[in-house]
Amino acid sequence: MLEVRNLTKRFGGLLALSDASLDVPEGAIVGLLGPNGAGKTTCFTIIAGFTRADSGSVRLDGQDITGLPPHRICGLGMVRTFQIVQPFAGLTVQENIAVGAYLRHESRREALAEARRIGQRLGMGALLDRPAASLTIAGRKRLEIARALATGARLLLLDEVMAGLIPTEVTEIVGIIRQIRDEGHTFLMIEHVMQAVMSLAETAYVLNYGKMIAQGTPQQLVRDPAVVEAYLGHGAAARLQEAAHA
Amino acid sequence: MMRFASLGQAALVALVVVYLLAVYLLPSQVWMGFTINALAMSIVALSWNITGGFGGMASFGHAAMYGTGAYASAVLQVQFGVNAWVAFAAGIAAGALMGAFIGALAFRYGVKGSYFALVTLAFAEVLRICASAFEITGAGRGLQLTLQPGVATLQFNNDRVLTYTLLLGIVALVMALTAWLKYSRFGAYLVAVRENEDAARALGIDTYRVKVTAMAISGAFGGLAGAVYLQLWLFIDSSVVYGVSISVTALIGPIIGGAGTVWGPLVGTLGLHLLGEGAKTALHGAPGLNFVLYALVLIAALRFLPQGLMGLAARIGVLGRKGGDDA
Ligand SMILES: Nc1ncnc2c1ncn2[C@@H]1O[C@H](COP(=O)(O)OP(=O)(O)O)[C@@H](O)[C@H]1O
Ligand SMILES: [Mg+2]
């Protein structure tokens, strides 16, 4: 469904992405992992059309979408959420979701009805008339997903929707994402926290200093020395091995 | 059917409506003349409200659209002998084009916030200088319509009650269009752009197009206000219709009354005019005093009434109902 090929992006002297490629098959939940500053969010901003890559290409359903503006990409069925949540603070939760729903529903009545339906599905039924600014962090993360879903997109790029949540909230979101996937959606999700992805993703990629250093099932990845080193520092894999054998 | 967030808002709106109707009954013609001026200015306030209120793009140069509407209509009538109705419509169109042009240029280069305010101010000033330089716009002398009262010439100056009624109709129409916009997809998109442009783009909104369209609509209202001014006074000159005082009046009414609401611009403009007039009478008409007063009121409003009078009224007697309001 999504094919990302050889993305490279420099910010001044900093190589934020270097020749990064990844694939997301239809109906999958794919993880994108890596330590802070690895280039994960940069990868999303390029895929979703917010920034141009210096080189590389992005294809969605076989169509080249490299360099298209975000609203066109959203119209084609791929939508991103933000790591730093971006609610429309002055609007209610329902109105926030409706902004997404307007993409496929021109009438206000239909957009609001769709927003209500999606809000309820994400367990926000009781919060619909609250101002978005009054939501807790967990609520805001859910709102990000609800709005994205309301656009009718089939592929959702979630940027650290679990970060900052307590374990019970993580469990709830995991359940919701799995349920949405079973209804026919596809996910590419950035997670800094490995454990969150372990229970959801079939495959995951690991970025480190802008390079894809590994790909595999989460179970394979946690045993991959290169991944362990990326997370725990140089020599960590060897030390762990020694510790395991000792 | 109107719905209000609170009894306070309903009362404030009722007060305005009662006042506007009472003007018909007041014995002194002075009230009607005064209210005609306030209504005429509230059109440009409603114009500013589209971009500045709903869209969060605060302009400091709405005179650019106002003056363009007035000049387009005047040039067509005076220099080309075009029918007043056609010229009036052309004034509206010219305002819309000017708005779209300024918007297209400014937003193309990502101009935002106070820079946008400065760009619009610059446009208004350049246009003012141009209008005072070229012969076709009457240069330094301005343009004067031939006095010829009648329906064909759109001149009703000899009938104050009719003028007042027509203005009420125009203001009601612009407010109805504003309310319609507010509840359309476009209105939701405009507010989304104001609240968070990146989130709006991610959700499939072509924010550039939304902003330019908003400027065109605002420009149409602004051009209408200018064309109305011309038909009221039959004379324009660049320092008036492209003047900073138009731009100030355009933004101060909505900010005092409640930006991004349907009634706010009218409430604020009427309130300010009443206040200015009261002070003038009390202090025996010191010139320019009303602007000093406006400045003080504006500072007070920005400090104490972030959502204007409509916002204040909304907090009084809140009705136990969920969802938005129609005001
Ligand atoms: N707009 C930008 N300008 C300059 N540097 C940036 C910009 N965006 C990200 N970076 C840098 O690029 C690197 C990757 O950032 P990011 O993609 O946010 O990492 P991650 O999401 O994996 O934590 C970081 O070093 C960050 O400081
Ligand atoms: Mg990030």
UniProtKB/TrEMBL annotation, chain A:
Q: Which domain of life is it from?
A: Bacteria
Query: Which GO-annotated molecular functions does the record name?
Result: ATP binding; ATP hydrolysis activity; L-isoleucine transmembrane transporter activity; L-phenylalanine transmembrane transporter activity; L-valine transmembrane transporter activity
| One example of a Gene Ontology biological process annotation | L-isoleucine import across plasma membrane
Domain ABC transporter as annotated: residue spans: 2-234
Entry keywords, A to Z: ATP-binding, Nucleotide-binding, Transport
Family annotation (SUPFAM superfamilies): P-loop containing nucleoside triphosphate hydrolases (SSF52540)
One GO term describing the cellular component: plasma membrane
Q: What is this protein called?
A: Amino acid/amide ABC transporter ATP-binding protein 1, HAAT family
Automatic annotation (TrEMBL), chain B:
GO molecular-function terms, A-Z: branched-chain amino acid transmembrane transporter activity
Q: Which InterPro entries match?
A: ABC_transp_permease, LivM-like
Q: How does it sit in the membrane?
A: Multi-pass membrane protein
Q: Record keywords: Oxidoreductase included?
A: no
Q: Which domain of life is it from?
A: Bacteria
Span-the-membrane segments of this chain are 30-51, 63-80, 86-107, 161-181, 212-236, 242-275, 287-305
Any GO CC annotation of this UniProt entry: plasma membrane
Q: Where in the cell is it found?
A: Cell membrane
Q: One Pfam annotation, family name?
A: BPD_transp_2
Alphabetically list the UniProt keywords. Answer: Cell membrane, Membrane, Transmembrane, Transmembrane helix
Indicate whether Transmembrane helix appears among the record's keywords. yes
Q: What is this protein called?
A: Amino acid/amide ABC transporter membrane protein 2, HAAT family
